[in-house]
# Entry
Amino acid sequence: MDLHRQLLEAENRVRDHVRVTSVELSASLSAASGAQVFLKLENYQVTGSFKVRGALNKLASLSPAVRARGVVAASAGNHGAAVAWAAGLLGSSAVVYMARSADAFRRGQVESLGAEVRVHGDDCVEAEREARSFAEAHGMTYVSPYNDPEVIAGQGTLGLELHRQVGALDAVFVALGGGGLMAGVAGALRAVGRTSRMVACSPANSPVLHASLQAGRIVDLPALPTLSDATAGGIEEGAITLARCRELVDESLLVTEEEIVASLRWMLQHQRLLLEGAAALPVAGFQQTRERWRGRSVALILCGANLNPQKLKALL
# Structure
């Protein structure tokens, strides 16, 4: 099946349940940079994150009999919440593995949506490995946060929306993480003939896929604490997103914690938008390079809004 058809099928599966999030022209960022800066407001998506697109598409692609056996996921928070929500919508059950380092606030969100949360390992890769083993042992379906064609296609529905809402763009800035959002959005834009420069943005404290793109293989790096906890941690071996992102990513940037904080504050002050750390990555990446975009049009994917209230308090 060609990619465009796969994306349209994904859109058909999710369209009645996820929001078509709006795009706004940012007056503040445009004035500060001399560019036309569009914001794709996925922070207003169901469950507060783009992740619901991929999770719902994956679960909706399963047969009722397979869904009835339940699904398993591993997550730092947003993907787990999305899987829990999609499972509840479709009459399935969900078990979500989270690393010991996972934010307690995010764990509470996942549990509140009906999933059984199991804590395992010090890193998301360990949680993913255990989740896969549990799913295989119990005849359940494992739903990867990024390493799955149906999940990536679900995330790609965001790219189709952006294409229809804005049209041609010179660049699109996307938080990288495990690469599912970038692979989906960039793949969708390429599938409809767009040639926007795709700029990946990663936290300098946890740059696994950024470093893997440079090395041409999955690398193992220590993950330091980061406000962008949704993109933190390792990537499982054999992840299909590595090859896809190597093909689709035109530029990969690293963002410091200070830049994440500055971008979160900027968006609160100038846009009245509450974002999580991962959603600040594209803002910070654009701010780093804004002189290059004067007189051009760019879009920043604001991927989520699930910020721990205690972190918000400290930020303010």
Q: What stands out?
A: The radius of gyration is 18 Å. The first strand starts at residue 23 and ends at 25. Residues 3-50+149-315 form a domain with the Rossmann fold fold (CATH 3.40.50.1100). The CA atoms of residues 30 and 36 lie 5 Å apart.
